[in-house]
Structure formats: C-alpha cells, structure tokens
C-alpha cells in the first residue's frame, strides 16, 4: 500500500483528533496537511502508520493551540468553536464518546484544559489510545500522561454537559422549535425553552449579534420571533441541520450565502442553550459567506417601512 493511500485512509481520524484539540475546522485541516507533508518527506517507515500519524498531528495541534491561546484571550466577545457540519470519522465502538466530544458545549469545556491535558484527554478518553501511544504522541512519560488524564477527566466530569439521550426526541423538538420560529409563534417557542435558557452569539466583532447574550425564556422567545419576520421578508432562509452532533440550523441570505450557524442544547425535553456562530471567518468552510451587516441593515429598513 502506498503512503498516499495509507494517509488518505487515516485522514478522517487525523482530522477528528485535530478538530477536538483545536476547535477549528480550518486549523485542523492545516494540521492534517502539515502531517502529510512531514510523512511524505520522512525517510523512516513506522511500525504503525496510525500511531505515527496520530502522534504527528497531535504534536502539530498542540503547537497550534498554544499559539492560538493568546489570540483567543484577545478575541472580541464570546469565543465558540467553528461549526462542524460532518464528522468524517466513525467508529461504532466509540460512537458515544465521539458524539459527546464534538458538541459545542464539550469543546468549550475542553478550552479550560491546558494544551497537554486536552491532547491526552482526546487521545485517551475519546479515541481510546493506550497510554504508551499517548505518551509517544505528546512527548511525556506514561506516568505523566496518566496524571494529565486524571486531571483532565476531573475537570471534564465536573462540568460535563448533559444532553437528551434520545436522538429522535432531540430532532423532533428541534423541528418544532424551527417551525415555531418561522411562524413567529411566541407561545409555542416559550414552551420549548427552559426557564433559564441562554442565547449567545460569537461574532468576533465582525457581524451583528445580541450584545452579551439574551437570557430567560420570555426574552429569548420574543427576540427570536421579532427578528424572523423581517429576515424572511428580505429572502432569508433557515435550513435545519445537525451541527457538532447537535440539532441546529444554518441561516442564509436570499442568495444562499451563509449568515450564521446555530446549535441547540436539548435536555429533558427543553432547550437550555442556543449558540450561534456569526463570525464570517468561522463560516467559510460551510459555504460562501454573506455580509451580515448588509443583511441587518436591509432587515431594519424593511421593518421601518412597515412601522
């Protein structure tokens, strides 16, 4: 088997590792490409190609994350991971771990870990690598990796997000939510929202959003239903989509360009969090990106015309 063929077979796994460490589709893709360049020019033949490439992409991702941390500390407003439309890696034996680890809430929780803790947690807890492989990947002893894993697991367990276990139930609730949103049905929306629901956006200062967030079922329902009629009037559309393993939607302008990607945290038959990525820099991998400010101004003009 050629190196190219071996690498392409492992590409989904390598991307999945890098994305969970970095929380960025674009950075994960770059890390995978850099892994290929290093593999292509390497003169050694590894005993296990999977272990070798996983180690290389992990080290690259750790380096990228360390430099990204300073940028994220200076980020304007709330930082969310880039939305993932499709996770290319599948492993039925670890389906639950893979699904949980890619959710927006879990990725935000991973942000609290150090780069080494995050890498060890991802390799060990999510993908099931043995400690010898983890140690080789992060350049630490097995004993040190066990300690890192314990600390990471403790942090993750303390704040681990809970989601509706019934996948079909989540999808049905999301469908009702988006139907009520399109229809501007405040009462129906309010019934689907937890009393302490929060709606927060990540625009990076490059698109309009709801300040620091909207909190409470009444406020969230009213803000959403007051916005949607004008969005629909100027040709905007809402496409229900699974994002980061969660129910969500992609909002597009009249030309089909992407305005935002929204995910819903569902638990006990209610929506507890609504998170929207509006930063155009984080949406380019989804498709051509709209000018959020232009759409906002057009919607405001349509609203004033009917006042």
UniProtKB/TrEMBL annotation:
Name the source's superkingdom: Bacteria
Where does the record place the RNA polymerase sigma-70 region domain? 7-70
Instruction: Output the Gene Ontology terms for molecular function.
Output: DNA binding; sigma factor activity
Q: Give the record's keywords alphabetically.
A: Sigma factor, Transcription, Transcription regulation
What region holds the RNA polymerase sigma factor 70 region 4 type domain? 107-156
GO biological process terms on file:
DNA-templated transcription initiation
What's this protein's family per the entry?
Belongs to the sigma-70 factor family. ECF subfamily.
Q: What's the subunit arrangement here?
A: Interacts transiently with the RNA polymerase catalytic core formed by RpoA, RpoB, RpoC and RpoZ (2 alpha, 1 beta, 1 beta' and 1 omega subunit) to form the RNA polymerase holoenzyme that can initiate transcription.
State the protein's name. Answer: RNA polymerase sigma-70 factor (ECF subfamily)
The record lists the organism as Georgenia soli
